[in-house]
Amino acid sequence: DPARGPVLEVSGIVKTFGGFAAVKDVSLQVDSGQIHALIGPNGAGKTTTFNLISGMFPPDAGTIHLNGTPVHGLPANRITELGLARSFQITNLFEGLSIYENLRLSVQAKHPSRFNLWRDIDSFPDMHDQTAELMKFLGLEGIDDIQGGDLSYGGQRLVDLGIALACKPQILLLDEPLAGLAAAERERVTSLVRRMAENIPVLIVEHDLDRVLSLSHDVTVMNQGEVLMTGAPDAVRADRRVQEVYTGT
Ligand code: ADP
């Protein structure tokens, strides 16, 4: 029964760029209810792995299954439709639209009646309710009218995560969600990721090691395109080889 297996199963993926193997035989799996961290020094192959999983380009070899469905080789938009959402460091907000409008657009995109919504948007109160609920979940209620472009950097990151959530994904890929944030904002985004993960499994790449290890249930460590180890955060913290690749000693 594929529904009982991992939500995401990556098996032996390979990606070579002009003779250089950026990803060599990488396998990992994310189970439901789990935050899985993908860590490793610069150049380890984390971004390439994310690009392969989200369908930016196909793997040269290996397989990727989403809830038991093979997705390797499918275009990115198809993988998104099958339930994979990816949030980037670069913010996706429409600067001239309010926070509410930004989020409602994403809710709208997933609405069963999306093709005739332009006719009479007010006859779909559930869309308003879903958007309001999302604003509340993000802790942004009460500032609905602020324009995307006027929001703080941390606030924009929250809305970005909300946009990914509005797609009702089966799994969420987070690309350095804490990068560039001040301490208080990091705290807020961390707590939001923790709450999101109660409903949606998360695969996260993040450079803040202490924070990502304290957030995760399971960790895959990459180095030079390969998986160095997979294990619980405590095992990763204690592993001599992991310390070596990070400190170069
Ligand atoms: P990380 O995200 O862990 O820092 P990357 O996946 O970005 O690692 O990169 C892994 C290796 O692959 C690096 O040596 C990088 O230079 C190389 N690489 C990534 N993308 C390309 C590309 N499009 N063409 C050539 N080399 C690439």
TrEMBL record:
Family membership: Belongs to the ABC transporter superfamily.
Protein name, as recorded: ABC transporter related protein
Compartments it resides in: Cell membrane
Organism: Polymorphum gilvum (strain LMG 25793 / CGMCC 1.9160 / SL003B-26A1)
Secretion signal span: none
Limits of the ABC transporter domain: 8-249
